[in-house]
Write a structure and sequence with these properties.
single chain; alpha+beta; Ribosomal Protein S8, Chain: A, domain 1; Dna Ligase, domain 1; 2 domains; 5-stranded antiparallel sheet; 3-stranded antiparallel sheet; 3 helices; 10 strands
Length: 130
């Protein structure tokens, strides 16, 4: 069994390491929302849906660079299918890295850890990006 979220995150990391400007992944609503969060947090330039039928749909991700440096230096999948990681709202803390963001799946959808804490939502910790 494969983990489509881990595959999406690793494709982002590999594309940055290869110096690519864009890449595509099979479409899913979850990956699209995760990509939209990365655009909001200014880690990638854009994410667009292409294709008409469900079998043809792909997400085209355009990467962001600061000069020649990638906007993302690392991505870590926290919660995995074999070991889910959950946090209550009061357990969410500021991340130790200065420019780091945690993405949490809450009852209201995907959001950053800071947003979840403000709205008093806990949930599954999907990944950490820095």
């Amino acid at each position: 069994m494969t983990d489509p979220v881990a595959d999406f995150l690793i494709r982002i990391k590999n594309a940055y390491m290869a110096g690519r400007k864009e890449f595509s992944v099979p479409f899913s609503d979850f990956k699209k929302r995760l990509g939209e969060l990365l655009v909001e947090q200014k880690y990638i330039t854009s994410i667009e849906e292409e294709g008409k039928t469900p079998m043809e749909k792909v997400l085209v991700v355009r990467l962001k660079y600061h000069g020649k440096e990638p906007a993302i230096s690392n991505i870590k999948r926290i919660s995995k299918p074999s070991l889910r990681t959950y946090l209550k709202a009061r357990q969410i803390k500021a991340t130790s890295r200065k420019f780091s963001v945690q993405i949490i799946s809450t009852p209201e959808g995907l959001m950053t850890a800071n947003e979840a804490k403000k709205k008093n939502f806990g949930g599954e910790v999907i990944c950490q990006i820095w």
